């Protein structure tokens, strides 16, 4: 049975994202060639422009895919923690630790903000923030967290994890910076707890 136009388009998008992900990880955004990338995907530049508008649009799709995978990996780590507060902290730590992954480091944490601007405005980060805010609301309702504005608390906890990951990724010695970043993240995050927790 012949593929529908929608199936072919989705297949082309997936091929372009896979080729771009490889190129951006190996060469960085600036040095990645759109001609090489489209040739590797077996497609034309026209397919790239049709699906993503331009190189930046393709890069945004790659960042969104990887950042969404990072959030899913962090959630999986958190899921093994029965205490919701500890789960929230474990999720932040897992996100920070991913800064050691060369693909995450180069594409999401180094090139991402340079090309796409403020990460807190990325769709993948916004989705993550909403999930964090729901957890914060539950923790406040249970009295585990101080009665803060849930959005403010969620933004600052998420922001602390993101900034720690950005710091680790940009450092000359990530392995030395990582434990310092995690220790400080945990100390800052624990400031929102009520005294009796």
Automatic annotation (TrEMBL):
Q: What's one GO MF term for it?
A: DNA-binding transcription factor activity
The DNA-binding region ranges are 33-52
What Pfam families would the database entry show? TetR_C_41 (PF21351), TetR_N (PF00440)
Where does this protein have coiled-coil stretches?
A: none
Q: Does the keyword Phosphoprotein apply?
A: no
Write down the PROSITE patterns for this protein, in alphabetical order.
HTH_TETR_2
Give UniProt keywords alphabetically: DNA-binding
Residue ranges of every copy of the HTH tetR-type domain listed in the record? 10-70
What InterPro entries does the record point to? Answer: Homeodomain-like_sf, HTH-type_TetR-like_transc_reg, HTH_TetR, Rv0078-like_C
PANTHER family from the entry? HTH-TYPE TRANSCRIPTIONAL REGULATOR RUTR, HTH-TYPE TRANSCRIPTIONAL REGULATOR UIDR
| Name of this protein | TetR/AcrR family transcriptional regulator
Organism encoding this protein: Allorhizobium terrae
């Amino acid at each position: 049975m012949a593929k529908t136009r929608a199936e072919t388009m989705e297949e082309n998008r997936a091929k372009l994202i896979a080729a771009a992900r490889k190129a951006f990880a190996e060469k960085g955004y600036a040095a990645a060639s759109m001609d090489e990338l489209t040739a590797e995907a077996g497609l034309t530049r026209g397919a790239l422009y049709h699906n993503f508008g331009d190189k930046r649009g393709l890069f945004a799709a790659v960042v969104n895919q990887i950042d969404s995978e990072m959030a899913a990996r962090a959630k999986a780590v958190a899921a093994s923690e029965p205490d919701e507060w500890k789960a929230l902290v474990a999720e932040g730590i897992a996100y920070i630790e991913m800064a050691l992954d060369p693909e995450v480091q180069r594409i999401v944490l180094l090139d991402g903000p340079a090309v796409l601007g403020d990460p807190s405005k990325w769709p993948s980060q916004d989705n993550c923030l909403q999930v964090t805010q729901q957890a914060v609301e539950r923790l406040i309702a249970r009295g585990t967290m101080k009665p803060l504005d849930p959005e403010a608390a969620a933004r600052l906890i998420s922001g602390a994890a993101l900034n720690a990951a950005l710091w680790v990724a940009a450092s000359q010695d990530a392995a030395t910076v990582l434990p310092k970043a995690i220790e400080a993240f945990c100390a800052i995050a624990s400031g929102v707890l009520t005294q009796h927790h």
